[in-house]
Write a structure and sequence with these properties.
By secondary structure, the chain is of the alpha+beta class. The protein is built from 14 helices and 21 strands. The strands form five sheets. Strands 12, 13, 16, 17, 20 and 21 form a six-stranded antiparallel beta sheet that branches. Strand 10 and strand 11 form a beta hairpin. The longest helix is centred in the middle third of the chain and has 21 residues.
Length: about 425
């Protein structure tokens, strides 16, 4: 019997979830608290405040909602997941216990070390003098990270001691409580999202997320400005190692400490040249661009997967998600370059060109002007996602279509997946 589902959140990630759920014969109606111009075209949206728990519960009763998916960071931080669970509602999403790990790098490292889950070595300091003195013992490069800054912010790659010192001093000038000095580990960075009911886990396609703002891995760090999937080098052997060294130890530790998490568990991992795995962090939701990148690759019914997660029935899927064997490249289109203020109310031209089976637009910071034209309304305007039978075709598809998109202040990276494609070409040349 088809069911009603409620999504809480209003970004491109939620647009992608709703778009995918709309394809499910198991979904009767999709509701959304928090909306954007695209969500309103697919789902029934309402503007209830995400911290108005009683009003949300009333809405769930009124619309006969069978499953609620909490994506909004504010809602997760304020305890909506726990509130709905206590009121006997079927809900998935990160609770306040999991959100604390997203907010605190120091807490995350302590948790991982306590539970013998391998992570990169780091030290934290609550004053600049001790931190700068500690630099004498470090090999460079290192990362300097500010405590309490999430979604990619407060991260700096420092090639030498002088640059690290400046970042440390700036940390305390900005009144951050603590600074972290983290060892640099050279390797391949992957994002692996899994669905978990607290005991079982099903991996979704792996992806690589680009977090630096500028082409060539320069500029400020972001929560994610582009991505591609799947990762060919993540083979069956690596998947097994990820499961036994990272995913299940992490889920077991979360459960053992009473955090009672059910939903999407995102993990950020580095695989070094020796095949060692380092878990850098985790969160109880998709990242800024993960969902847009990997959901187009999934052939299984997304509603069935989410419902099985909520009801503890993931073992029925035999730990496998069916995919369509395609590749995807996702490019986030922004208004302005970080750091800097986005240009609002700029008319967006060319959206009509994104209307074919190989490319999809997921809207975020877009609104309507008085002429009912779509205009920019913030920094993260939209995500363009292309698929193809090869990574090269997905890459070519997304960038050929993006040439049609125009608005004042438009910015996006031109090299998402390019370094990997160049590496593949080099390997082919060597074999020849």
């Amino acid at each position: 019997m088809p069911m009603n589902i409620l999504i809480i959140g209003s970004g491109a990630k939620e647009s992608a979830l709703i778009y995918k759920l709309s394809q499910s014969p198991m979904v009767k109606k999709i509701f959304c608290i928090g909306s954007n111009t695209q969500i309103g075209e697919i789902a029934v949206s309402t503007n209830i405040a995400v911290d108005n728990f009683s009003a949300i519960l009333d809405y769930i009763y009124e619309e006969d909602v069978n499953l609620t998916v909490v994506c909004s960071k504010t809602a997760r931080a304020k305890g909506l997941v726990e509130f709905l669970s206590k009121n006997q509602q079927m809900v998935i999403g990160g609770n306040t216990s999991i959100y604390k790990f997203e907010k605190s790098r120091i807490l995350t490292r302590a948790f991982l070390n306590k539970n013998n889950i391998q992570t990169t070595k780091s030290e934290s300091f609550d004053n600049s003098v001790l931190a700068v003195t500690h630099l004498q013992k470090k090999k460079f490069p290192v990362y300097i990270k500010y405590e309490g800054v999430s979604e990619g912010g407060g991260v700096f790659f420092c090639a030498d001691k002088d640059e690290a010192r400046k970042r440390i001093e700036k940390c305390f000038e900005l009144s951050h409580r603590s600074v972290i000095i983290e060892d640099y580990v050279k390797g391949k960075e992957i994002i692996l999202n899994v669905l978990t009911d607290g005991y079982n886990a099903i991996p979704l396609p792996s992806c690589h997320v680009y977090k630096r703002n500028l082409d060539g891995e320069g500029g400020a760090y972001t929560g994610g400005i582009g991505a591609f999937a799947p990762l060919d080098f993540v083979d069956a052997k690596i998947e097994e190692k990820l499961a036994h060294k990272v995913i299940f130890p992490l889920i077991d530790a979360i459960t053992a400490e009473g955090h009672n998490f059910t939903g999407v568990l995102q993990t950020q991992i580095i695989i070094d040249g020796r095949g060692e795995l380092y878990l850098l962090g985790f969160k109880g939701d998709f990242g800024m661009i993960d969902a847009q990148t990997i959901l187009p690759l999934i052939d299984d019914d997304l509603f069935n997967l989410l419902y099985a997660t909520a009801t503890g029935a993931l073992e029925d899927f035999d730990c496998i998600v069916k995919t369509n064997e395609a590749y995807s490249v996702a490019v986030q289109v922004r208004s302005g370059i970080i750091p800097g203020k986005p240009l609002k109310d700029q008319k967006i031209l060319g959206l009509e060109f994104f209307d074919n089976d190989d490319i999809t637009i997921f809207e975020e910071d877009i609104t309507f002007n008085r002429f009912k034209e779509k205009v920019t309304n913030g920094e993260n305007v939209l995500t363009a996602v292309a698929t193809g039978s090869t990574l090269r075709r997905a890459f070519d598809n997304v960038y050929s279509e993006l040439e049609n998109l125009k608005f004042k202040g438009i910015y996006y990276r031109k090299d998402i997946a390019k370094s990997y494609l160049d590496y593949q070409s080099l390997l082919q040349d060597v074999k020849m």
